Amino acid sequence: MRTLRIVVSVFLLLASVAAQDVKGLGRMWTFENAPLDMFEKEYGFKPDAAWLEKVRLSSARFGSGCSSSFVSPTGLILTNHHCVRDWVAKVSPKDRDWLKDGFIARALAEEVPIPGLKVQQLVSMEDVTARVTKGGVAGDVAATERNRNAEEAKVVEEAKARFGPGHSPQVTRLYQGGMSMLYVYRDFEDIRLAAVPNLQAAHFGGDPDNFTYPRYGIDFGLVRAYVDGKPADTSAHYLKWSLEGPKDGELVFVTGNPGSTARALTVAQLEYQRDAQLPIRLEFLDRRIEIMEAWVAKDPAARDREVRADILGRQNSQKAFRGFLAGLKDASLMNEKRAFEAAFRAKIDADPALKEKFGTIWDDAAAIAKRRLDLEAGLRLHTPEGCRSLMRAVFAARAMDASLPPAVREAAKKQALATPGTEVAYELEVFVDIVERAKARLGAADPFVAAVCGAGSAADGAKALVAGSRFGDDAFLKAVLGDGSAEVAVDEDPAMKVAKVLAPLMQKEAMADARIKAEESALGTRIGQALFAIFGTKIPPDATLTLRIADGVVKGYPMNGTIAPWRTSFYGMYGRSVEFGNHHPFDLPEPYMKAKDKIDMSKFVNFVSTNDIIGGNSGSPIINTRAEVVGLVFDGNIESLPNRYLFRDDVPRTVNVHPDAIIESLKKVYDAGALADELLGKPMYR
Amino acid sequence: MRTLRIVVSVFLLLASVAAQDVKGLGRMWTFENAPLDMFEKEYGFKPDAAWLEKVRLSSARFGSGCSSSFVSPTGLILTNHHCVRDWVAKVSPKDRDWLKDGFIARALAEEVPIPGLKVQQLVSMEDVTARVTKGGVAGDVAATERNRNAEEAKVVEEAKARFGPGHSPQVTRLYQGGMSMLYVYRDFEDIRLAAVPNLQAAHFGGDPDNFTYPRYGIDFGLVRAYVDGKPADTSAHYLKWSLEGPKDGELVFVTGNPGSTARALTVAQLEYQRDAQLPIRLEFLDRRIEIMEAWVAKDPAARDREVRADILGRQNSQKAFRGFLAGLKDASLMNEKRAFEAAFRAKIDADPALKEKFGTIWDDAAAIAKRRLDLEAGLRLHTPEGCRSLMRAVFAARAMDASLPPAVREAAKKQALATPGTEVAYELEVFVDIVERAKARLGAADPFVAAVCGAGSAADGAKALVAGSRFGDDAFLKAVLGDGSAEVAVDEDPAMKVAKVLAPLMQKEAMADARIKAEESALGTRIGQALFAIFGTKIPPDATLTLRIADGVVKGYPMNGTIAPWRTSFYGMYGRSVEFGNHHPFDLPEPYMKAKDKIDMSKFVNFVSTNDIIGGNSGSPIINTRAEVVGLVFDGNIESLPNRYLFRDDVPRTVNVHPDAIIESLKKVYDAGALADELLGKPMYR
To answer: How far apart are CA A136 and CA A146, in angstroms?
Structure first.
């Protein structure tokens, strides 16, 4: 009896651990394998084929990394301001700043073509796994991969012929190769700008509020698809606007193109990211931002404009990395990962065939992580970054290195010539900081450190290098690169002396890195296949920037000792602005200040839901069970950053624009009632 | 050379560690030893004697545990709504609910006397340490203490004669006895209610927003001190109202009566709180709230009213305990404590006389903490809580125990009779839960567990006990307690059987607890004296519910990935209300709903500052360097809870009512312009 009881307990433990942690793999379902029975069981709602098809065809991949949806029968497309931002800047006339000031078309003729922008509708999905994997060569990974690549290319070619022009077939590997899907997209390539609000309304709260909630971002943009010079007829596949908007506790779906998740990583791989990769990168970033801010602080009027965008971009990464790192440092997250790994591994080990094929995955991952750990510091710290003379010298050294292939040498020559020669004070500080870090981590005997510093300090070494080198001089550089203008004694140049040490080091470490990456990629494939072998399509594949449907509910969450409301209001937006004295980035743009008395302050701006999203989902529609738009995905809260590694929905949230915010803005702020009416179901303007 | 360098480094390390961590002891300065030179050095502002005296006399201890200030020359006193709340309920007429609906006087005659409420102004401070400690008996702690108590009583008696009626002299021991101060208070005992807003305006956000920020609590109340039946003449000591309000970055002072801090605790004592005391208490509280909520959920209409206030009170403790525990679990806090302790101990050890006297403090603390740890579970789990029959039986067993003193037996008899006999379902669940916990922590052989459960479960044991016992019956209880009505066979009653085991256990453990508490108290005195011996009045004493002045600055802080603004607005308040659908506790009371269009939404409601406060400071004025009221202290943010153990000001903040909120409310919501005008400097109404 006692033995039996123990066996049963262990079994129950494993089963419950596995069930618990399969949840951590997330809810980014493919349309072809959406878990309809689970939806029915969990929510009492089972989408039928017609619902799924309509929703799929109403969704569209937007540009190179965003999502969107058709929201009128006449080709109107809803996405985020931040998805269309660069395009708006590109088509804005010289004498206008549509990015800053917004843009509103008031007739079809006023809509502005956006050359180069492509919107893609997923029209066909076929499982081609059997066909592309039939050329597998037992024991020869490379040959198997070659055959699969070749077969996938054939599948694409055939689909091109079958679907004809205006379509883009692609083979996407799901489950790290466990499945191969042929996805065919209908391409919309005549896209025209209809409306965007002021940048500052879309990006209200700027970098501080980025990745956070409560939030007040009116982050939307409207474009229109044209076919043969006329608004596209999308009457068969568009999402109606919900007149009631989202409701607390309501079931909602996000359809969009999540870019990349890392939920199949092993514990050893996560520990490497936690203990080496992320801390080293953050250290870099923190210090660099500090140096740049200090440099700006000495002369803000002159310098802020110059580097602010650069600093903001780095702060964005800094915030994301901090969020990732916080997740990996959260013991409960790692414990959940460990429990899942133990259960998963036990399942693999329990099947001899699977054990044979996948049993070494975890030890292999640990071994690779260990090698990457040894490589990490050199890879990050052996760099001329910040010192332009040295950057030029490194490229020149490569261009002059007879052991390298001609194409590589030619590319290096071009890079050398494209590098500006004048040193920038704060960049040099960054360089000195890098050399100091290299000294601390790799020792004074490290060849690069020794070459820069000799017996002195990093600062003195860098100073002497810059003062003594002629690489800042364009004529000298050209002569070195052999334009025949003169013979030069380049070997004695102090930058070249360092470059001759640094360039081969970088080359060697880059190659080691590439080898490790290839092994990691192969290992990733094996992990994905092992997961697929155990769980099949019961779990969703990691994100692949292809269309997914994610279920969730509208829901607030516990925050900072209290409750975050499930929605935010215009009251809150104007409040946050006055609370910060209307100072940037909490300033409201002029049209919103002017419309203050017209806006209904009790209408809503943003709301949150538990759907599983990640970068690439920006611009996704969020819909109710009637397939009506109840919002527009634009961000995740700070607590959702670790969802990259493990999906959770207790506190992590998707942040959406509330439909109120779009309609109030169009009608009361921008006098764009016609576009609002089109969203609400009336015919478009002419 | 090398040795010297090491010595210097260690010295610098110790010095810097000590300087760093003295900061952790906080900034609750006494008026008699306010660090004026430090103020000047840090802020460029050195209060003079007149400033200090005026500020001290303008501040007042309010009721039994709050603070307040005189804010007009005619006796008007400003404090928190939550400080006067119970008094308002007490004086509210039967047919009115001033607590819920607010109260506004519009003439002196309308002000409502509050019998029993006392407000105390600190008029004299004398250091009597030398006098009260001169009767010390070397080596005899108890005799020393007796002599000191007697001398302190004499000091108080003499002061009573010296200051005459209307004054309360008290000797307060600072630094756990390192100093004895004679504080003499002028008592104001004719206090009348002038104005309070609706409870829901003061308590907006309820339990969720309690201890948090951003916050929107208009938590003020106005009363007036009368002398000889007329408004007190406070023209010599009142604080003017700041017309400009607080400014970002401004130096501000809080004057008030912080109740209790625990910053002198040793690491071992904190570890005990972290590892045993707080987790066991929280476990209790969590489970009890869970049981009560589940009970309410089954019939909310009937049950919610009955136990909501009880649940809210427990949730308040739960939130505070969680905050304390989070602080103690924060490695950086403990490391800072450890570093301070090491430096402090080294200083004690370096002086032979101090080492002799105080050298064993830390080991003694660890030994006591260990003993308390062993006692903790029994002390908390040996209890009849939740089972009324058993509670009655325990009191009865005590009343019948001939080995106890007659007074104790008499008290037990009264307690038995005061305990209701009818069992309550959810309370019985709590009892079963307690017995289960006792079984898990103390084992099935624990006498109390064995007496309740026998060989069965806690639930069955409790059921049998209640079903079989006659202690629920009032007549039976009275007979047992010997009213002569009947002879009863009490020994066979199942509740009495358990009580005969439980009562002596509880008695024994309560005595052990009392012994440990006495030792802890004596140890606390030694720690305080050791701190005082090293640092003197350069550090502030732990809080003693006596008047302190705390310096700080008005300042926002990093929160949840973004920035908390230093102030919140009416926009934000109305926003939070609509975002929660105006549902309780985020509902705005009717007068605020009606005044929506009159209120200037861009005026401010609350703001934060870095001042060092704790419970007891509620109602304190927060003033600028001109001694003008710029706000009213009413809470701390959630991150400030661990300040109980270690003061920090990076993220912890004091939360204050902004003067805007008081003036807007009086003028626009309550039509109480005359009171607003009095605050703003005009004569009071008649």
So the answer is: 9
Between CA B70 and CA A183 the distance in angstroms is 76
* Strand B240-241 relative to strand B628-636, pairing: parallel
Q: What is the DSSP-derived secondary structure letter of residue B484?
A: S
Reduce the DSSP state of residue B30 to 3 states and report it: strand
Neighbours of B2 (CB within 10 A): 6
pLDDT band at residue B483 using 50, 70 and 90 as cut-offs: low
- 3-class SS of residue A222: strand
DSSP lists the bridge partners of residue A223 as A77, A193
Whether residue B343 contacts residue B354, with contact meaning beta carbons closer than 8 Å, is answered with no
Distance CA B323, CA B339 (A): 22
- For residues A269-279, one letter each, b for 16 or more C-beta atoms within 10 angstroms of the residue's C-beta and e for the rest, the string is bbbbbbbbbbb
Please state, in angstroms and rounded to a whole number, the distance separating the CA atoms of residues B323 and A272.
Answer: 32
Q: CA B293, CA B301: separation in Å to the nearest integer?
A: 13
- The pLDDT tens digits of the residues spanning B365-418 come to 999 999 998 899 999 999 999 999 999 999 999 999 989 999 999 999 999 999
Tell me how far CA of residue B526 lies from CA of B151, B208, B364, in angstroms: 20, 40, 11
Structure tokens at B130: 């030398």
Q: Which residue has the tokens 């009170």?
A: B313
pTM for this entry: 0.89
What backbone torsions phi and psi does residue A407 show, to the nearest 5 degrees? Answer: -65, -40
What tens digit of pLDDT does each residue of B156-207 get? 999 999 999 999 999 999 998 889 999 999 999 999 999 999 999 999 999 9
Residues of B in contact with A566 (CB under 8 A): 579
Q: At what angle do helices A331-349 and A494-535 cross, to 10 degrees?
A: 60
The ipTM of this complex is 0.88
Residue of chain A with shortest Cα separation from B576: A572
CA distance, residue A565 to nearest chain B CA (Å)? 6
Closest CA to B203 of B77, B100, B112: B100
Question: In the numeric block, which tokens belong to residue B45?
Answer: 């502002």
DSSP B589: P
User: How many C-beta atoms surround the C-beta of residue B115 within 10 A?
Assistant: 10
Inter-chain CB proximity A572 and B576 less than 8 Å? yes
β-pairing, A557-559 with B103-104? unpaired
Amino acid identity of B222? L
Dmax (CA) of chain A: 93
Chain A residue with minimum CA distance to B558: A208
Q: Residue ranges of the alpha helices (H) in A350-488? A: 352-358, 361-381, 388-400, 406-418, 425-442, 447-453, 458-468, 474-480
Count the neighbouring beta carbons within 10 Å of the beta carbon of residue A596: 15
User: How long is chain A?
Assistant: 686
Strand partners, B609: B554, B654
Residues of chain A in Cβ contact (below 8 Å) with chain B:
205, 208-209, 211-212, 214, 248, 319, 323, 559-563, 565-576, 578-581, 601-602, 604, 637-638
Nearest to A195 by CA among A232, A218, A221, A230: A221
